[in-house]
Amino acid sequence: MLKELIDQFYIENQKNRDQTHFYITDAGKCPRAVFFKFKNVPREPMDARLLRVFEHGEHLHRNIFNILYRLRVGVTTEIPIPAQEIISGRADAILCVNNENYVLDIKSMNSMIFRNLKEPKEENVYQIQLYLHYFNIKKGILLYIDKDQQNLKEFIITYDPVLVKGLLEGFYSLKTQIEEGSVPARLAEYPQNWQCTYCQFRDICKLADGENVKWEEFKKKIETLQA
Ligand code: SF4
Known about the structure:
This protein is α/β, with parallel strands linked by helices. The protein is 46% helix and 20% strand.
């Protein structure tokens, strides 16, 4: 009874923002899923449990911010990257330790994933590299929190201009595909890739071939099925 009411609350209050520009968190994401977001393709609502997991992650972030302020490490939190044409985003924090500036990005995960984490996740590295680029800071810290046991792990990331160039080229190329109406190919490991498991466009995605398809034709197919 109460469980259903709480679940319903989460489902009804989830926000599916219309996407008109890229977010830093799109780095490393499936280009086809990002394309679908730009085109407002109908998506499956997110599971209430998953929404609670995200909310819990935000609380953990705020706890860390609190500690950082008390540590007096010259911290500024939730800073938007400078405005430019292609991408927007907000770094968790910029702080100064031993006279050196760092961009901080905080991620939380369950104990099992945390235990097995020997190196930073690729998509997290992509995101922090973009923050380093836009803030012109040479070093970053990826701080991982074990949500169940409250353990911490950190990885120091050094700015890699070659990697950033590749990421930005990927965004520009996806921008062209969006403007020209060319639906990107599926991920190579579809449907086993973890992104497919959580993808809100799974049902739509399987209606198209695995390769690039023309958006106008595919859109008609979606509209016919919805009619
Ligand atoms: S199901 Fe997989 S390949 Fe298809 S859009 Fe989603 S993440 Fe991409």
